[in-house]
Amino acid sequence: SAVISQKPSRDICQRGTSLTIQCQVDSQVTMMFWYRQQPGQSLTLIATANQGSEATYESGFVIDKFPISRPNLTFSTLTVSNMSPEDSSIYLCSVGTRNTGELFFGEGSRLTVL
Amino acid sequence: DAKTTQPPSMDCAEGRAANLPCNHSTISGNEYVYWYRQIHSQGPQYIIHGLKNNETNEMASLIITEDRKSSTLILPHATLRDTAVYYCIVRMNRDDKIIFGKGTRLHILP
User: Is residue A80 within 8 Å of residue A87, measured between CB atoms?
Assistant: First the structure.
């Protein structure tokens, strides 16, 4: 199994600011995804983080709002830009390898925007 | 959109088998059925997956109907720690993204 470390685990931010969330994995993984989970809701896929190229965004999510980096096979960042209270959510990093197909999830970063 | 349908909630008595149904009537021949669960305030946890045959591991059993249009996750002896939201997911292959539906909120009753 992969051990995933997300930072920060939680934060309280002011409207209009930006926050970058880091996802560090203890092994090289081929797949990395970012999800959002709003209060009381299921998980929504934001994008696939592609190593060495631009992320692939799902419908309703754009790069200007959620820029993603993935410089190598063990690390990725998600930035939530120009935040509003509607961005208050848990943001989760998910990783996996093609060998097993199993995806592992971090514990998430709980973001509150005032 | 999620390709599965699950009941929004279920109750199960502690110590009994919990049987969680899932409908995936539009599943294609090369799509897998995956189950994850999410315990409150934690990230989702992988449980089991299968293609055609029934599968069993240390956590659960997965029963897939012959026509593959539905499946059942079985927790053989439910405990209070099994209280969680259970997600049934259909996934093309091993490097495909996972799209979550609303899941089933399972309550284990003491």
Answer: yes
